[in-house]
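INFO  loader      accepted 1 record
INFO  loader      residues=189
INFO  predictor   begin
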Amino acid sequence: MTPAPRHVERALHERVEIVPYDPAWPALFAAEVVHLRALLPAELIGRIEHFGSTAVPGLAAKPIIDMLVEVRSMEDVARRIAPLLQAEGYEFFWRAPEHGLPGMDYAWFIRRDAAGRRTHHIHFLQAGSSEWERLLFRDYLRAHPEAARAYGELKQRIAAEHPDDRVAYAKAKTRFVREAMRAARRKPR
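INFO  predictor   done
INFO  writer      dumping tokens
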């Protein structure tokens, strides 16, 4: 088994820090939208959404802006978008559709500030990807402040238990997210 690339190892073992909601987060999202639209060819990208905890007013979160960017194809991401973002210092991550098969069905980038801290996670998805359902979770938490508060408390507890293990941190949130998604799907739209 070959070792993971250095940037992947670094990303997996960075400290998980949860901070109180920062009202500047929507503006940081908006500024990155402007930057991406200026940098990337317009014909390659569609809608751009703010999701994750920084998109929920009042919710404690990792101070990293999560974004979903619609693309025509993952091939465009690999061949045209990744080189442009990597030239700007973004770190490129991707997942194959099935282990051992060529291709890519999910790609994301980490943007860092001058001190090396993560500032943005930028996820690229095709229009029909099931990953767009993440917006249901965001919208559910926005509409249910009590659920958002409980989620924030859970994340703070889990971050204290797994401060240097992002995989364990993510797995420990799974049950809450799954239950919230079930509730979100039951609500009439």
